[in-house]
Q: What sequence folds into this?
């Protein structure tokens, strides 16, 4: 039985997971607020990353890695206690890999042939390199107490005997054995697993009772008939407990994708997410909105929402809000203690009161604590001509937060596409200073990283408020690189292309987010996991042994 298996896992983990002060990364962006922070990084500092950091090794896997790698230290696995990195691929394979050695894989398991992207999505290649299929796209979540990793696969080719399906899995993190699996179906009359995709990272509620799965479309403009769903699965049975749809009726869209960013949860367990293009009426349809739903036994219902005043324009022009996931801020001084930051393709920024989100007001975004329009030197995903260049900037992924002991900052990242290449349409990192719940009206620092590139959501490492580093992946062609910058000045500390013969990242998918844990940085790529760290550690890992 599932419950008895979990109880056994709990007993094992209580004995074999000693507290050694190492950090775990068991969910997207490190926490349910989606701050992106690892504040227990004692090894990596701006100084040694600048002078002695590089690629340590790569680990081959069977397809592209889109989901963020997850990290569990001191796990009882393979006959000992080890630090383990978990990766999931588009081939529906999950790997448990030694986080410190290049050739030790404790287990790998495939969970069904993936659906081919051919005919399914216009993005059938990343950087002109084909991938095997649309398998595991969303970042899983791990409950180390239960000893389970939870994820969603996509399988089937539509032929007889191979119907399209999404499947929710609970898998033992020490063995790869399936503990529970459930075919995803919210019970809607027009449910179509061919069109639907699990793209936003999964989340676990604070009580450990439910895993939340967000659904949207496959990511193709040709298919506009999905719905947005949030579905709650019991951690103790693996079965569906509740479902919420962002739109009602047939062919109403409103998917949740967020550039892969996770559903965000506050301390009470209420869930926040952003939706894609759809009609919006505040009753049965919540297109291009930031939505709050409650959690509870067998119930997911709307609590509140914010819809921008220009929602109809966003919907009409494919400028969906759901390109970015929400960031829940720490409690703030001032009139609005409970805030979140949202954004979208247009690069407008919304600071929303989580206690009274503002709903919809046609006269402007004066119903929220703060609204920042698109910066004049950016274009908000609308193709424009600036000088001699034609192009656009566009925002994807999710913002992150960091306090350096003196100031609090929020960071957002933009893609840049232009022809000919020009800094008029930059790939950039924007830093906003946060004071008493208000963002600076313009960036307090801005870093430029070329043009014609795609930018994944960043991550932060620091030792408390000191030795902060902002990490992100820039992808597309020869510009593909892992970057590290100073979070206060945005001055570059490291770029893997400076010594490309030694540190080359290789190809990566869009929306890739790096994982920083215990002195190493893990980045998913095309058929491999790339591991960076201090070069003084290269070759100094414990002896490699094969694991059967």
A:
């Amino acid at each position: 039985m599932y419950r008895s298996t979990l109880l056994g896992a709990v007993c094992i983990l209580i004995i074999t997971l000693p507290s050694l002060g190492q950090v775990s990364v068991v969910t997207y962006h490190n926490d349910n607020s989606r701050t992106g922070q690892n504040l227990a990084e004692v090894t990596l500092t701006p100084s040694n990353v600048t002078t002695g950091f590089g690629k340590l090794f790569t680990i081959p896997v069977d397809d592209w890695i889109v989901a963020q790698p997850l990290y569990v230290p001191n796990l009882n696995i393979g006959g000992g206690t080890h630090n383990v990195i978990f990766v999931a691929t588009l081939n529906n394979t999950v790997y448990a890999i030694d986080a410190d050695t290049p050739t030790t894989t404790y287990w790998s398991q495939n969970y069904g042939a993936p659906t081919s992207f051919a005919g399914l999505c216009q993005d059938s290649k990343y950087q002109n390199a084909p991938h095997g299929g649309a398998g595991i796209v969303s970042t899983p979540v791990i409950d180390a107490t239960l000893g389970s990793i939870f994820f969603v696969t996509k399988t089937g080719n539509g032929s007889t005997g191979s119907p399209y399906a999404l499947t929710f899995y609970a898998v033992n993190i020490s063995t790869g054995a399936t503990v529970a699996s459930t075919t995803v179906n919210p019970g809607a009359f027009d449910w179509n697993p061919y069109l639907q995709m699990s793209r936003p990272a999964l989340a676990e509620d604070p009580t450990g009772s439910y895993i939340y799965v967000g659904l949207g479309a496959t990511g193709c403009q040709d298919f506009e008939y999905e719905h947005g769903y949030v579905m709650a699965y019991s951690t103790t049975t693996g079965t569906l407990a509740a479902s919420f749809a962002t739109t009602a009726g047939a062919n109403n869209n409103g998917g949740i994708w967020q550039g892969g960013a996770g559903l965000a949860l506050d301390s009470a367990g209420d869930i926040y997410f952003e939706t894609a293009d759809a009609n919006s009426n505040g009753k049965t349809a919540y297109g291009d909105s930031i939505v709050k739903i409650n959690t509870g036994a067998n119930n997911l219902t709307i609590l509140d929402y914010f819809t921008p005043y220009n929602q109809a324009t966003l919907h009409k022009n494919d400028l969906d809000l759901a390109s970015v996931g929400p960031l829940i801020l720490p409690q703030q001084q001032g009139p609005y203690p409970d805030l979140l930051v949202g954004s979208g393709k247009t690069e407008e920024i919304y600071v929303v009161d989580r206690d009274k989100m503002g709903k919809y007001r046609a006269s402007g975004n004066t119903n929220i604590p703060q609204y920042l329009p698109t910066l004049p030197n950016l274009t908000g995903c609308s193709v424009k001509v600036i000088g001699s260049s034609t192009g656009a900037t566009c925002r994807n992924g999710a913002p992150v937060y960091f306090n350096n002991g003196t100031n609090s900052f929020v960071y957002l990242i933009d893609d840049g596409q232009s022809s000919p290449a020009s800094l008029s349409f930059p790939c950039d990192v924007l830093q906003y200073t946060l004071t008493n719940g208000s963002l600076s009206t313009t960036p307090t620092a801005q870093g430029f990283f070329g043009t014609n590139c795609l930018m994944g959501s960043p991550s932060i490492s620091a030792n408390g408020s000191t030795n902060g580093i902002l990490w992100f992946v820039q992808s597309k062609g020869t510009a593909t690189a892992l970057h590290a910058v100073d979070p206060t000045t945005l001055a570059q500390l490291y770029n893997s292309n400076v010594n490309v013969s030694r540190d080359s990242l290789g190809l990566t998918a869009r929306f890739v987010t790096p994982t920083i844990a215990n002195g190493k940085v893990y980045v998913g790529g095309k058929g491999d996991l790339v591991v960076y760290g201090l070069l003084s550690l290269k070759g100094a890992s414990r002896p490699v042994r094969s694991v059967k």
About this structure: The first helix runs from residue 2 to 16. Confidence is low (pLDDT under 50) at residues 1-20, 541-548. The two ends are 26 Å apart (CA to CA).
